[in-house]
């Protein structure tokens, strides 16, 4: 009997809610400013911009987004050979940070190329990718320019890392790869 009584009460509450609803009139609006914002004219005269509203100079001391330096060597086999023959690191010995280069290498390169550059990274051992050569492979004869070009554009199955590493970080990785190559050739 008690459960029947509860069901009847619930039905009565539901019926009263449904019967009080009128779709012909709008509901009450609480905090109408959230739904109907005050509009502003974007290019109106303002005291904030004494010379008028137009393209403004950046604020003094602000940091520009995306320090992008264009890479002048194109993404072709000829561009790769040109980079291999002529491109050198702009970093001098005081700017090279081998531990940082090693960390970046471990993050982005080590998974395929291995921690020591022999081409036996985790993905190669698990046979997810195949054919990653060792850095001391005589047929490759890698140089700083060829490594940078490959990091920037990618080569064969390797994709580009230009979006993940800025120019300075790419050169740090290049220096670390050359150190791995030298260690393997000993």
Structure write-up:
The chain has 186 residues and is mainly α. Helices cover 41% and strands 0% of the residues. The model has no long low-confidence stretch (mean pLDDT 81).
Key terms for this structure?
Cytochrome Bc1 Complex, Chain D, domain 2; 186 residues; mainly alpha; 7 helices
CATH class identity of one domain: Mainly Alpha
- Might you state the CATH topology name of one domain? Cytochrome Bc1 Complex, Chain D, domain 2
Q: Helix fraction?
A: 40-55%
Averaged pLDDT? 81
Distance between the termini: 92 Å
Global structural class: mainly alpha
Could you name the ranges where pLDDT drops below 50 across 5 or more consecutive residues? none
Beta-strand portion reads under 5%
Helix tally equals 7
CATH homologous superfamily (4th level) name of one domain: Cytochrome c-like domain
Radius of gyration, CA atoms, in whole angstroms: 32 Å
Per CATH, which architecture of one domain?
Orthogonal Bundle
